[in-house]
Amino acid sequence: MRSRRIQILVALVLTALWGAGIFAAHANGHLRFLDRLEATLTDWRTQVRGVKAPPDLVTIVAIDDTVVKRGGSYPLPRADLARVVDTIVQFKPKVVAIDLLLVDRSAAIGDATLANTLATGPMVLAAAAIFPSASETVDPSSEGPLAVLPQAERFLRPLPAFADHAEVGVVNVATGQSGSPLSVPMLFRTRDKVELSFPLRVAARALDQPLTVAPDRLMLGDRAVPTDSDLALPITYYGPRRTIRTVSAQSIFDGTLDRAAIENRIVVIGASVAGGGDFYPTPFDSLMPGVEVVSTAITHLVAGDSIVRDRRVRIADALTAILLPMLLVGLLAWRRSALGIMAAAAVMTAWAGLNLYAFTHGIWLNAATTLAAAVPPVAVFAGVQLWAGGRRTQYFAAKSRSLAQFQAPAVQEWLARDPDFLSKPVRQDAAVVFVDLSGFTGLSERIDPDELRDILKTFHALIDKTAIDCGGMITGFLGDGAMILFGLPRAMPDDAARALKCAINLHRGLEHWIASLPPAIAGQLGFKIGAHCGPIVASRLGESHQHITATGDTVNVASRLMEIATQNDARLALSDMLLDTADFRGAPDGVLSGPLLAQVRGRSGVVAVWFWRDRDGPAQASTKAEAVD
Fold first, then answer.
1. Which residues lie closer than 8 Å to 532 by C-beta, 6 or more apart?
2. Helices in 470-549 by DSSP H: which ranges?
3. 280: helix, coil or strand?
4. Are 118 and 161 in contact (CB under 8 A)?
5. What is the share, in percent, of the chain residues with pLDDT greater than 70?
6. What is residue 136's predicted lDDT score, i.e. its pLDDT?
7. Residues in the chain with pLDDT < 50?
8. Cα gap 13→329, rounded to integer Å
9. β-strand 95-99 against 123-130: which pairing, if any?
10. What integer pLDDT is reported at residue 628 of this predicted model?
């Protein structure tokens, strides 16, 4: 009983460490795959919440396809844009925000007209942050509160003729792993400058409140902006496109613009032209215009209804990532039966419901990190619980069959005399043969699993017989391949010769076996073999189920020789060292071509490689000797 309590305590401690490690790794920018999972779960939670009526504060004046068809060009001529702005200003909006990059000169008259128009009302123009790569990065070497801000190379600002008559804000948004914007940075920086975001500029102007930038928060008047830890505003979409009030700029040219859509409101002018490029996927739309994403952020800032993902929420996420897995493991340990599993399932269901409820009520609790923290330890512990009942019986049964784990008879006899054989790693010389089927993965997608199993079983049996006949030991089958070791239980003078014989016999045996298969299968399969000799480190791994393995440069080279064989239209690649050690003088029924001085992937220097085939086998491409510096 005491032993079981200790085991449960250890399991709980390890579970807590796992949860803390997952949260810390993700918070520090690692485990990026969790961001994609969280983006997917966020889209799902948004869809479950459904369409939500936005506060009616913003009107989008869209430069859409109707406007472009009228004018015949895009971007909109500056004179036409000036007309749009002038009409809007006459209807007395709170602020006019132009989500268009006015960075290039156009016709002088059009630019002058627009500049004069911008001076007639409260204006905010869009700038863009230019980053050194596709992602907005944070310099980890930076110090101080500004270190968390996205650092740009430079800001692309409107022309001075326009910027002199308006405030300017950076319009970039932050997209998640799914491509959907999940937050909008409120501040951006270069090496010598900090700029406010476009939505923050617009909200501050619309509210006519002073903006306070503190190291850990933003204040609009006496109201805190609920930003994330990097001073970005999390956003959640109200619904599909045009959920926020939208009118076409064509209504201005037609003289049909409704004054009520403009007066005393925030007006955002932006493009929604098909093919314009400024579109993003959202939970409700595969393509939503960027101006609607920006308008969503502005609405959040002005109405104060953004979803909360601040420091307190992060602390709740950390505690959940640690305590929920511990609770689940504790329930499984408390009742080692279906009752414990049902209790754990009930807790997980309750957590999922609480997470969804919080999200629909404006609190964004991370779901992906919690799942990553909870599922692996719970699955492992549940598996251990199911296995624990028969563990002792299996343990003693495994001990009685320990010698049967090693396929080479010589090793079995050696273990009978010395049970501690290779309990400590041993350095020695050995020969290594690798064999692998080609095309097996593609074949497995097209044939029946039972037929595939029979093919693999026959393949393993052929390798097993060939290896044992030559005195080799199969250290492990790697699915459709195997590693054969010559040199255990101790190195012998003929290890290289027996490895060479094994490689050649495998070549012949596999050629005949593949030829005997049905043509539809034989045409899909091939094989490759690599053999090398040299120093290795031999050891035994595992506890109740042990196996012998070998590591070192010799093993790596033997494995890579298979790649070299494939690259040179051969099936069997032999190192020059193996042939010299085996004192190979050639065979009347085989053709040896080479040497080829080859660069082995992941290794400095070159290896002299020879290629062998049956004299009566299919012709293969000749090799050329290469000089490698």
1. 431, 432, 554, 557, 558, 561, 574, 575, 577, 578, 607
2. 495-516, 519-522
3. strand
4. no
5. 87
6. 47
7. 134-142, 392-393, 396-397, 399-407, 619-629
8. 10
9. parallel
10. 28
CA-to-CA separations, 396 to 400, 490, 536, in angstroms, rounded: 6, 29, 32
The verdict on pTM exceeding 0.70 is: no
Predicted pLDDT of residue 548: 77
- For the record, the structure tokens of 618 come out as 């299919």
pLDDT digits (tens, 9 = 90+) for 411-437: 666 666 666 777 788 889 999 999 999
Residue 542 has what pLDDT? 65
With tokens 């690599």, the residue in question is 530
Q: Are 530 and 564 in contact (CB under 8 A)?
A: yes
Spatial distance between the Cα atoms of 424 and 405, rounded to a whole number of angstroms:
18
Closest CA to 530 of 503, 552, 551: 503
Position 618 scores a pLDDT of: 53
- Give the separation between CA 29 and CA 14, rounded to whole angstroms: 23
- Token pair, residue 138, equals 């944070």
Cβ contact 540:548 at 8 Å: yes
3-class secondary structure, 3: helix
Joined together, the tokens standing for residue 58 give: 């913003």
Residue 463 CB partners (closer than 8 Å, separation 6+): 435, 474, 477, 482, 484, 506
Backbone angles phi, psi at 322, to 5 degrees: -95, -50
611 and 565 Cβ atoms separated by less than 8 Å: yes
Q: Name the region of 108 (left: φ>0; alpha: ψ -120 to 50; beta: rest).
A: alpha
Token pair listed for 440: 């097996």
Q: What is the pLDDT of residue 619?
A: 45
Place of tokens 């911008």: 118
Please report, as a single letter, which amino acid is at residue 313: V
d(C-alpha 507, C-alpha 526), whole Å: 11
- Residue 411's pLDDT is what? 62
- Which residues are bridge partners to 130 per DSSP? 154
Measured CA to CA, the distance from residue 154 to residue 203 in angstroms comes to 24
